[in-house]
Structures are given as structure tokens and as C-alpha cells.
């Protein structure tokens, strides 16, 4: 069976996400200008908070495909670091969508992340472990609190698993991917927030599969929320994957899996004539608009046919935001 693998390790994109610039790796000038605007607004909203921290994120999509089966996998990480670069909060999750073809048709898939699957992920039931994936990831998250990016990268492994007794007591799965994700997020943390703010992350995937191929859009959002329940920073992106079906099999040569911010100008909204602003620019407008609002105020944002009804938001964001908005509400609710 012919096999095709795409790895989109997006360390460069993590810089743009962490700065809320919403820009791709090929558009540096717009990245610098939008990063400056968003970072200043985040900093001002959190200026009354106790102490200062910075937020960084990491998103790494990869696609592995054969003629009748595929795996769309994405590692997500978000951290807050203090003035000394030490992690004070960490959130990790992973999406793993595994479509298969039967008689040329794509079967149903589980769109939940591994954390959302909880006990249903089935490591314990399979006898592979005495702890489920979400429990082991929580142990890793707790272990890296208080560490710098360099200290996270220095975590020792044997065959991909942690050798430190304290970590391995609660986390027996391979941790190499987590180490890269958390360290990269910490290294690129630039958005200023209050040190006492709460971190929240959410991922929601929609299935757009049809007879022409498998297609999945995963909305990603990281927020921080202060003691008054106001959003002090927001970073969004969408991981967009597709795998065409040709002659009853997945066309592995044409599969793709990347984030919209990673694509930047190449996403092509302006080139197609659909708008005068690219997706990453409109995402930044949304991020700025919800910063300073409470969860209730975000939930109250009015839509018309999925688009913002408010003139201030609509001036910079003309795309449909219904799924982005609901996922942002989910991230706010998850802030802890």
C-alpha cells in the first residue's frame, strides 16, 4: 500500500500565534505590525492584574495516509510563563481523527480530542496502562510547572518515555511530543497578561466530509481570563485538513493539513476576490474585539447568517464566526 506522510511542525507559526499576529511565516511585515497592536491591547487590559506573565501557544498538525485509512493528528499546547520564564500554567491536548474508507465511502469518526474522550480513549480497558491518557497528560502538565523552556527540553527520556521517577510515576506514555510542544510554546510566549489570570484552551472539530473526500476543520482557541471574568488575551486558529477520494481510494498525493494562520496570504481569500482582508487579519480583529469582555458578553455577540452584526467587529471581520465564537466561549469556560 502506498503511504504518504505530511508533517507540518510549525515552530515559526508558533511565534505568530503567541504574538496574536495571526500571520503566516511568509508575511513578516504584516506579522510585525499586527503583533504590536494586539500585544499592546492585551497588556493594557491586564495592567491592573497582580504581577505579569506571558502566554505562548503551539500547534503541530500532521497527516499520515494510505489508500483506505488516514490519521489527522494535531498536538496543541498553551502555557503561561512568569517574568523569569518559568511556567506557571500549562494545558496540552491532542486531536486524532482517523477516517477509513469502505467501498469508497468515508465512515464516521470520533471528533473529540483525547482529553475530551476521557475514559473512552480506552488505554486502561485495553490493558495498556493503569491510567488514562488525560490523567497522564495532567501529570506532565503539573510536572513542568515551575520549569523554564530549557529545563523542559532537558527532561530525560529512554525510548521516548520519561526516566525521572516523579514524572514517570504519573506519566508512562511517550513524552517527546509534549516536551517539544511545551518548550516551544514557552519560548515563544510574548502576549502580556496578569500572572493571576486563568488559562483556558478549547478545540472543536467539524466534519465536512462528502463523496469527494474527507475534510475536517478544527477551531482552536486559547484565552486568559482575569479575576473579574474578563478576557485578557485571545488567540485563535483553525486547523484545516482534507484528503480527496479518487477511484475509491484516498489520493495521498493531494492530502493537506495546515492551519489557516500558517498559510497566511496563501490562504487566498484576497486573491480570490472574496474579501480585502486575509483570514489571519480577520482573526486578529476578532481576538482584539473579545479582549476585555466577560464570558457573558462574548456569548452575547450577535450574528446574522453566522457573521458579526456589530459594526465595529464587522469592519475588521467579515468571515463567518459562528464556530469560532462557540469555541471561544468553550475556552473561556475552560479557563482555570
Automatic annotation (TrEMBL):
It comes from the Bacteria. Residues 1-18 form the signal peptide. Keywords: Signal. Residues 26-47 are annotated as: Disordered. This is FMN-binding protein. It comes from Candidatus Faecivivens stercoripullorum. The lineage of its organism: Bacteria, Bacillati, Bacillota, Clostridia, Eubacteriales.
